[in-house]
Write a structure and sequence with these properties.
- By secondary structure, this protein is mostly helical.
- The protein has two domains: 46 residues; 39 residues.
- The radius of gyration is 44 Å and the shape is rod-shaped.
- The protein starts with a helix and ends with a helix.
- The mean pLDDT is 84.
């Protein structure tokens, strides 16, 4: 009976040792995979979320400013077109011009 108990103890110790080795192997494989993924992601030249959101906010603000400027230019073009359509009122001739005209006659 003592031998059987000893045999079972040895088998149990062997199983525990194998489980420990398997656990260590799993951790090592996970570390290697993690390291490899980090290297691949670094090579892809990706940006962090914070950087992306900051650039996105700048782009949104620039788009809003562009739209406001487009409206302003359209209004100014409309005013300019309205001015060109109205005939310019003739201003009375200046006294120096009147004198020059009378001298020529």
């Amino acid at each position: 009976m003592q031998t059987r108990s000893r045999l079972l103890d040895d088998v149990a110790r062997l199983a525990n040792g194998a489980a420990g080795v398997a656990s260590g192997l799993r951790e090592e494989v996970e570390a290697l995979v993690h390291q490899r993924l980090e290297r691949v992601l670094a090579d892809l030249d990706l940006v962090r979320r914070e950087e992306f959101e900051a650039v996105e906010a700048v782009a949104i603000r620039a788009r809003e400013e562009q739209e406001a400027l487009e409206k302003r230019v359209a209004e100014l073009e409309k005013k300019l077109a309205a001015r060109k359509r109205k005939p310019a009122a003739k201003s009375p001739a200046k006294p120096a011009e009147k004198a020059a005209k009378t001298d020529k006659s």
